[in-house]
Amino acid sequence: MRNRNRKQGFTLIELLVVIAIIAILIALLLPAVQQAREAARRSTCKNNMKQISLALHNYHEIHGVFPPGAIATTATSSAYNVWGEAGNTTGVGLHGTSWMLQILPLVDQANIYNQWNFNTNVIGNRSAAENDIPVFYCPTRRSKVRKVDEKITIGENPGTSTPASNRFTKGGTDYGVCIGGGNGWADGDLIHLTHRTDALIGTFGGGSGAFLGVFYVNSDTAIRDIDDGTSNTIMSGEQQKLHGSGAPKTSQDSWAAGGVGNMFDTGISGGTAGGFNNNFYQSAGSDHTGGAHFGFADGSVHFLSENMSSRVYLELGTADGRETTKFVP
Amino acid sequence: MQHLRLFGSVVLCLGLAVGLSACGGSAAPALGKVKGKVTMDGAPLADANVTFMPENIRASSGTTDGEGNYELIYIRDEMGAAVGPHKVVISKLVDEKETIPPNYSDETELTADVKSGANEINFDLKEN
C-alpha cells in the first residue's frame, strides 16, 4: 500500500543546495573558459606575428634587403607626411604605401598584390586597399576594443591635424615595424644604416634622438646592417591604437598606407625611454594582459612584459645603437 | 540539520567567491605617487613631457598643464613611479624638434628619488 502522506520529490532545501552547487561550478568554470579563449586569441596573435616575421625574412631572401618601411616620393620630416601622400586624391605619381603591401605575396595575399597599380597611391588603389586581411589583425584587439563604429582612419586627403574624409570601413592593421628608438621620420634619401654617423642623425629626418631601427621611410636595411645583433633588435610588434582627437591621442589605422598606422618607435617624445602601452600615439602596445608580442630581427617572436626596463626596450628598437643591451627573452 | 546544510553551502559560496577574486594581479613594482611643478626661469612650463627613468623597471611619464603641474602615470590609469632613484628627462617637442636645453632632455643631469607614498618633486630649469 502506498502511503499518501509520504513526501515525493525534492525538498526546497535539497533543491537550493543543488542550485548552489551548480552555481559554484559555473562560477569556477566561467573565468577558466574566458581565460582559455583569451589564451587562444593570444596564440593566434603570436602566430600572426610569426607569419609576418617569416614573410619579412622571405622578402629579404628574395630581394637581399628588408622591404622599405614605407615608400614616399615627398620629403618626410613628420609622422603624417607619408600618411598624407597615401590619401592624396591627386593620386598619380604618388605612393605612400607601407611595408605590408610589399609582403602581401608572402602571406598568401598575392591576389590583392596583383590588383595593385604601382603608378598611383593608396587612395588610387582603394578597391585593393579596402580589404580586411586576417593575418594583420590581432583577435584580442578586434574582439573588444575595435567596435563596428570605429572606422579605419585612412581616407581622402588626411592632414597633420585634420582627419581624412570619406574614410575606409575595412583594411586596418594591429601590427607595425620599428623605426627605432626616437620618433624621427627619416626619408632615407641621404643615408643608409651602415653609413650612418651620429653627427648626421641630428640634421636628418625628424625629431631629436632619431635612432634608426631596421625600418624607416624608403629604407633598404639588410641583415648585415643590424650591428646590434638580430636577436637584440626589435623588427616588428603590435601597434598601440589610441582613440581621441588629434595627435598625440590618436593612432592611425591602415595596412596599406605607410607611416604611423603600421610603424612605431620604442621611445616617447624625442627619444625618451617610456616603455610600451603608454599614452603616445606612435608607440607599440597591445590589449593582451601584461605585455605585447614583438618580432625580433632573427625571426623569433617574444612576449615582452610591460613592466620591463624602458631603457632596455628603447635600445632593443635600434638596429645600430652601439649599446650593450642586456636582454634575456 | 537542514539549516546547517544551507548555512554550509552559503559559506562555501562566499569562500569560493573571495578565493577566486584574490587570484590575478600584475607584476608591477612598488609605486610612489609623484606630482610637482616644472618652471623655466621661474615661469611655468606648459605641455612638456616629464619622464622618470629608473634602472631595470618601466619608466613613468606625465605632461605638464598650463600651470606647469605634472602628475606621473606608471601605466594606463595606474599613477606613480617605481620607488627608488630615477633619471629625469624633461622634453617638449615643437614641430618634432626639442626645445628644452640638452642638459635637461637628451643628455639629462636631472635626478630624483621617489619614496613610497606621496611625493612632490619640483624642477626649476634655466635657459642657457
Question: Can you offer a commentary on this structure?
Answer:
Chain A has one domain. Chain A contains 8 helices and 7 strands. With 329 residues, chain A is α+β, with helices and mostly antiparallel strands. The longest helix of chain A is centred in the first third of the chain and has 52 residues. With 128 residues, chain B is of the alpha+beta class. Chain B has a single domain, classed as Sandwich (Immunoglobulin-like). The radius of gyration of chain B is 22 Å and the shape is globular. About 6% of the residues of chain B have low confidence. Chain B is built from 1 helix and 14 strands. Chain B is 16% helix and 42% strand. In chain B, the strands form 4 sheets. In chain B, strands 1, 2, 5, 8, 13 and 14 form a 6-stranded mixed β-sheet that branches. In chain B, strands 4-3-9-12 form a 4-stranded antiparallel β-sheet, with no helix packed on it. A two-stranded antiparallel sheet of chain B has the order 6-7. Chains A and B meet through α1 and α8 of A and α1, β3 and β11 of B.
Instruction: State the share of residues found in helices of chain B, binned by percent.
Output: 10-25%
Summed over residues and divided by their number, the pLDDT of chain A gives a mean of 82
What would the CATH topology of chain B be? Immunoglobulin-like
Shape of chain B: globular
Query: Structural class of the helix and strand makeup of chain A?
Result: alpha+beta
Quick summary:
The complex is a heterodimer of chains A (329) and B (128). Chain A is α+β, with helices and mostly antiparallel strands.
In terms of topology, how is this protein built?
The complex is a heterodimer of chains A (329) and B (128).
Chain A: H1 12-63, E1 70-71, H2 81-87, E2 97-98, H3 99-102, H4 110-115, H5 126-129, H6 139-144, E3 175-178, H7 198-203, E4 234-238, E5 263-264, E6 291-296, E7 301-305, H8 310-317
Parallel strand pairs in A: 3-5
Antiparallel strand pairs in A: 1-2, 3-4, 4-6, 6-7
Chain B: H1 2-21, E1 31-40, E2 43-44, E3 49-53, E4 60-63, E5 69-71, E6 73-75, E7 78-79, E8 81-82, E9 84-91, E10 93-94, E11 97-98, E12 111-114, E13 117-120, E14 123-125
Parallel strand pairs in B: 1-13, 1-14
Antiparallel strand pairs in B: 1-2, 1-5, 1-8, 3-4, 3-9, 6-7, 9-12, 10-11
